[in-house]
């Protein structure tokens, strides 16, 4: 069977590998280590051997990074993928290496109804711009634009590094601490795994002189026990996420809808006050009615980046 190899490196701790027939969604993915380029190469070889050395027609990789001189730089991993080397390793000519947030956006039109949860908004406008906000270890953004034949084109963006705006004194306290630490304060600093931990730590310093360090999973675990500081940290990050989605909708004219995805969104989704999210999303003064018409969806699909990669093959 001629197959396509799919790989997702959006998580720096491991990568997902799957084999599919061209255009088909993956039924399952296998986790392999990828902490170095040597481990990445060895994992691919081991995976193909475990699957009886299939005949490959092509391969596609999703990764957090960008194109540099014939390769793909991945700062979270500390190494780069060289396109020619990977072609030679796999004995193929056709190879795609795509930004992971772009892959998420590419998957939107391949999702089942059961994989989309409508958070708020109206029905949206068919054929209009849509956008995906992907929050995980970072904060990504991609626009989805339809051509005259109804085919989507996904545009990569770096909106997660846009300046953070605050609207309340409490948000201003968080901003001031982050500014002293980093100088420039982007939205990614508060809408990401590390961002939630930073907010919790700042609240501890401001309110109780507590310098304890935490990670996002610990904050979420505390929030589930009713811990007031953890719940406030989630609430503040939720507000910043809603503001990001709202500003994205305005700047792109994304009347077709906003899609929320990513490891961080999944982590806090059952703690989000969606009514509060909607209030912040639509809080645009004279354009409140405009915002109320835009649907916002939470994506609940496994292996979203791999699903996006399949669209490259039919």
Automatic annotation (TrEMBL):
It is an enzyme of class 2 (transferase). PANTHER family: GLUCOKINASE. This is Glucokinase. The lineage of its organism: Bacteria, Pseudomonadati, Pseudomonadota, Alphaproteobacteria, Caulobacterales. One of its GO terms (cellular component) is cytosol. Gene3D superfamilies: 3.30.420.40, 3.40.367.20. It comes from Asticcacaulis excentricus. InterPro entries: ATPase_NBD, Bacterial_glucokinase, Glucokinase. One of its GO terms (biological process) is glycolytic process. Belongs to the bacterial glucokinase family. Its EC number is 2.7.1.2. Keywords: Kinase, Transferase.
């Amino acid at each position: 069977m001629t197959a396509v190899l799919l790989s997702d490196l959006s998580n720096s701790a491991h990568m997902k590998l799957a084999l599919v027939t061209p255009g088909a969604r993956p039924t399952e993915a296998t986790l392999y280590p990828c902490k170095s380029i040597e481990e990445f190469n060895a994992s691919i070889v081991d995976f193909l051997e475990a699957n009886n050395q299939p005949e490959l027609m092509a391969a596609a990789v999703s990764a957090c990074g960008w194109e540099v001189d014939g390769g793909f730089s991945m700062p979270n991993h500390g190494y780069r993928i060289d396109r020619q080397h990977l072609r030679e390793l796999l004995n193929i000519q056709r190879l795609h290496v795509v930004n992971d947030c772009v892959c998420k956006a590419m998957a939107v039109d391949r999702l089942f109804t059961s994989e989309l949860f409508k958070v708020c908004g109206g029905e949206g406008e068919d054929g209009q711009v849509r956008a995906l906000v992907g929050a995980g270890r970072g904060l990504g953004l991609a626009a989805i634009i339809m051509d005259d034949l109804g085919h989507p084109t996904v545009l990569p963006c770096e909106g997660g590094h846009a300046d953070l705006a605050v609207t309340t004194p409490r948000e201003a306290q968080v901003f001031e601490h982050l500014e002293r630490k980093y100088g420039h304060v982007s939205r990614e600093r508060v809408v990401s795994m590390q961002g939630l931990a930073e907010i919790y730590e700042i609240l501890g310093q401001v309110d109780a002189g507590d310098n304890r360090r935490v990670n996002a999973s610990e904050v979420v675990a505390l929030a589930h026990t009713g811990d007031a500081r953890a719940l406030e940290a989630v609430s503040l990050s939720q507000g910043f996420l809603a503001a990001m989605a709202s500003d994205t909708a305005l700047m792109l004219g994304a009347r077709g809808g906003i899609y929320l995805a990513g490891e961080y969104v999944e982590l806090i989704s059952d703690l989000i006050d969606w009514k509060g999210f909607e209030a912040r999303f639509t809080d645009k003064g004279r354009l409140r009615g405009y915002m109320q018409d835009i649907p916002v969806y939470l994506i609940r699909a496994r292996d979203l980046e791999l699903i996006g990669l399949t669209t490259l093959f039919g």
